[in-house]
Specification:
Layout lengths: L7 H28 L2 H8 L2 H11 L10 H22 L23 H31 L3 H23 L13 H28 L1 H5 L4 H13 L6 H22 L7 H18 L2 H23 L1
Helix pairs in contact: 1-2, 1-5, 1-6, 2-4, 2-9, 3-5, 4-10, 6-7, 9-10, 11-12
Length: about 325
C-alpha cells in the first residue's frame, strides 16, 4: 500500500499522539506507580476498556444496539472486566500456598500511606484518560493515514522530541536525569521504547484497523493478571484467592467482548469485494462499456448469493 501524503492536519494529529501517550500517559503512570505499588497502579489503569468504550460511543467509533444480544455482550463484557479488576484490587481472601512464594516478600511498600495512595491514584487516573484519548485519536488518524508502521515511527519520533522538551523544562539544571548507566535503568528504557511503545503502537494499529478500537483495549486487563503472576514469582508477593477470582472474572468479561465483536467482522473480506466491484461498475458505466459492466454485475450477484448461502449454513 502506498503511504498517504503527509498533510498539516495529519502531522498535527501525530504530534498530539506523541504528546498524549509517550509524554503524558506514560510519565503520569510511572509517577503514580512510584507513590503506590505496581499492582495497584495497573489495577486502576485497567479501567481503560470502560473509559475507551464510553469515548468510542461519544465519537461514534463504536455502536451499540440494545436489540442485539452481541451488542449487549460488549457492554456486559466491559462492565464484567471492570468488576474483575475491582475484585482483584479490593477482595483479598485467604492466601494461596504457592511453592514459589514460600520465602519473604521482596515487594517495595515505600510510599503506600493514604496521602501517597490518593496522589498516585489521581496521577494514574489522568494518565489512563490520556491513554484512552490516545487510542481514540489513533483510530481516527488511521482512517486518513492508514500506514501503521509509518504512523508508529512518527509517534515515537514526536514523542521523543516532545519528551525531551518537557524534560528540559521539568528537570532544569538536573543533569543526572539524563544519565543512563549499564544497569536495569537501561534495560527498562530500552524495553519500554521498543516493546511498549514502538511495537505496541504498530500491533495496536494493525488490529485496530481490522477489529476495531474496543477489541484492542479489551485485552489490556490481561496486564493485571500478568503483573500479579510475575510479582508473585519475582518479588515473592503473596497470591490471594481474591486475585485469582478477579482474574477469572476478567477472562469471562474479555470473552464476552470478543464474542460480541465477532459478529461485526464475521465477513471481513466480502464488503471489500463489493466495494471494489461497485467502484469498477461506476468506472465502466462512465466509459460506456456495457458488456463488461454486465459481467461485473453478474459477479456481484454471485458474491451476494454466496454470502446468503454461508449465512444459511
Amino acid at each position: 500500500m502506498v503511504r498517504p501524503k503527509m498533510t498539516p492536519m495529519i502531522f498535527f494529529k501525530i504530534a498530539l499522539l506523541g504528546l498524549l501517550d509517550p509524554v503524558v500517559a506514560q510519565n503520569l503512570f510511572n509517577l503514580g506507580m512510584k507513590y503506590t505499588t505496581a499492582t495497584f497502579a495497573i489495577a486502576l489503569y485497567n479501567t481503560l476498556p470502560a473509559v475507551t468504550f464510553i469515548l468510542a460511543l461519544i465519537f461514534r467509533l463504536e455502536s451499540v444496539k440494545l436489540q442485539s444480544i452481541r451488542s449487549v455482550a460488549k457492554v456486559v463484557g466491559t462492565v464484567t472486566t471492570v468488576g474483575g479488576i475491582m475484585v482483584m484490587t479490593l477482595v483479598k481472601g485467604p492466601a494461596l500456598d504457592l511453592f514459589w512464594t514460600k520465602g519473604p516478600s521482596k515487594q517495595n511498600t515505600v510510599g503506600t500511606d493514604i496521602h501517597s495512595s490518593i496522589k498516585g491514584a489521581v496521577l494514574v487516573t489522568i494518565g489512563c484518560f490520556s491513554y484512552a484519548c490516545f487510542m481514540i485519536l489513533q483510530a481516527i488518524t488511521l482512517k486518513t493515514y492508514p500506514a501503521e508502521l509509518s504512523l508508529a515511527t512518527w509517534i515515537c519520533l514526536m514523542g521523543t522530541i516532545e519528551g525531551a522538551v518537557v524534560t528540559l523544562v521539568m528537570e532544569k539544571g538536573n543533569h543526572s536525569a539524563w544519565t543512563i548507566g549499564w544497569d536495569t535503568k537501561l534495560v527498562t528504557v530500552t524495553y519500554s521504547g521498543i516493546v511498549c511503545s514502538a511495537l505496541g503502537y504498530y500491533v495496536g494499529g494493525v488490529v485496530m484497523k481490522t477489529r476495531g478500537l474496543v477489541f484492542v483495549t479489551a485485552f489490556k486487563p490481561l496486564c493485571m493478571i500478568a503483573v500479579a503472576i510475575m510479582s508473585s514469582i519475582i518479588f515473592a508477593e503473596q497470591m490471594y484467592l481474591g486475585r485469582a477470582l478477579g482474574a477469572a472474572v476478567i477472562c469471562v468479561g474479555l470473552y464476552l467482548v470478543i464474542w460480541g465483536k465477532g459478529k461485526d467482522y464475521e465477513y471481513p473480506s466480502m464488503p471489500q469485494i463489493d466495494d471494489n466491484l461497485t467502484q469498477s461498475n461506476n468506472i465502466l458505466i462512465g466509459n460506456g462499456k456495457d458488456s463488461v459492466d454486465h459481467e461485473v454485475i453478474t459477479i456481484s450477484k454471485q458474491n451476494k448469493q454466496r454470502r446468503t448461502l454461508i449465512e444459511s449454513v
